[in-house]
Amino acid sequence: MSTLSIATAAEVFDLLREDLAAIEQEFSKQSASNVAVITDIAQYLIAGGGKRIRPLLLLLAAKSLGSTGHSRIRLGAVVEMLHTATLVHDDIIDEADTRRGRPSSNTTWGNSKCVLAGDWLYMQAFSSALEERNFHVLDLLISLTQQMVEGELLQIEKLGHLINEEEYFDLIYRKTACLFKVSMQLGAAITPHDFGDANVIEAQLGEYGRNLGLAFQIVDDVLDLTAAEEVLGKPVASDLREGKATLAVIHALERGTGADREAIRTVLADRSFARVSHSQIIEVLRRHGSIEYAMDTACAYAEAARQSIADLPPSDAKRALLWVPGFVTSRDR
User: Fold this and answer.
1) What is the mean pLDDT of the chain?
2) 148 contacts: CB under 8 Å, gap ≥ 6
3) What are phi and psi of 254, to 5 degrees?
4) What dihedral do alpha carbons 60, 64, 69, 70 form, nearest 10°?
5) Rounded distance, CA 161 to CA 149, Å?
6) Of 318, 333, 131, nearest in space to 226 by CA
7) Which segment of 176-185, 227-236, 302-311 scores lowest on mean pLDDT?
């Protein structure tokens, strides 16, 4: 693996530009409904942009195995549709006002319409996936959706409570890493290839997705604590205000003084910084090296992702897959 150079951002974009544009069109086409409000909400969400990292992963997995068919475009749109549906529901559950620097859809259309639009997007994603006539694809998507819903329910049950690292990793696997993993597995599932055992290759690509997804969410959680609001596009420290303990906070809780733990518990229980300020919490985290600990953990998962694809044959897609972990751990939003 060391002899293969890591791609640059420009090379990755050049490699995928046409496919990503085709996925955007497919997503737009698939999210058109006879009921105007569904189309309006879907188009608003598509226009909100986002990194499109899940379809990007599916494309790279498929390309690394020599994919040429339309399936990668269709399923790239499917994973982005599923992701978008979860965002709509998340914003309602979290009572979020903003998403990516704009009003969240539920502040514009209200919770009732957005719940139903999210449901419609879920079903549309499955309807589109059904065109593959591939039971394995459906099996992956059904299992994924169950894991994501379970993750959201588990998180609601734990709001305001202290959790340990094991519980945290279970949550972020279900909520984030599972979709990264399945995006990679789908890329393999739709691409016949003539090297290695298909199940082994799919498992290795899935492991890459899982490790990358864990790194991605840990970084997301650190940025929630440390980034500037105008960069993040949503209020900072939203997790703490919603009663969510993330990795840096768990680290500080396990190492802090009685006063440190009490300060963190207070914010989690109050779900506000009324009695303990955001800067006080940051000071506790910095004193215990908790933010560095979380970032080091994210970088370790990013490196594990790179190691997961050591057996893939050399290609531009593999070079791009070696680039993605560095992008995930060095982003600022």
Assistant:
1) 94
2) 82, 86, 174, 175, 178, 179
3) -80, -20
4) -10
5) 20
6) 333
7) 227-236
